[in-house]
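Support request, please re-run this one:
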Amino acid sequence: MVCAKHRATVALATPLGTPLAGDTLFGHFCWALRESVGEARLQRVLDGYTQGKPWLVVSDGFPAGFLPKPTLPRHFEPQMDTTGRKAAKRQRWISMQCAGLPLRELLAAAVDDEAAYGASPVLAVQAHNTINRRSGTTGKDSFAPYASTQHFHAEGQKVDIYLVIDDERVSTETVGQLLVAIGAAGYGRDASIGLGKFELAAMVPADLPSPTGANASMTLAPCAPQGLGFDGRRSYWRVLTRYGRHGNAHALAPNPFKTPVLLAATGAVFVPETVYEPRQFIGQGLGGNGRLSKIEPETVQQGYAPVLPVALERSRA
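Re-run finished. Output below.
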């Protein structure tokens, strides 16, 4: 298995109905590959996916030039007063230029949404109507007006997505073409009514910095770290319950919902029980054999995540 890490920069063209999440993006990649080259080709690249051999690992979308702040307890932060602690909660991004700094300097350099994006994204509610074609009006039950949230960014907002690609099974060029197709069709909820569209601006090899004394891995997407030899007493994460549902053609099935899964949210920091070794990604593939879906038994879920090396201060853990 020969993996290479790339950074794809996309320019958002419309609001997002669903934030750019690595595991959701991976599902879009699978559907895009299936529609472009067929089910048999998809099955071949997924061979070994739940045995630690992913063909592709996708990160969340981050403001261009930034990475998420590590999920760590307050005692790792520089000493600050109440006002400073409140501000620190909003400072959730680390500049790429600071990613190789010692931990305390890295955390002190965190910035908020306005600094990372240039203009803070806005979460707004959009009203919708469903028309009964017999009466020509809205009504009750499935025809009742409803509202949904949308994530608005600045026009042409640049977002970075990190991709770990198994070059033996799929080429970087093919992954780029799939990302273009996803952006043209739309990503996430309400793509059919115009949300989630973007354009691929650039795709280049990614060389993430590694601090001196790196001994831990910070995740760039939700992942499933269970049973992989991490020290739970010295690792830090937030629990995320993913209530998945099928997209594409299966979204119209009588039961499009998947089995819920527990993941560690993006920004988790994992320390190995034994010797630290640099990795491109951590985690595991979930599903298969009907464990996630009854309507599509071979459905898998990305439980992998690209990682950034971190030098965690052992004496303060």
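Residues 120-152 form one domain. Residues 90 and 217 are 23 Å apart (CA to CA).
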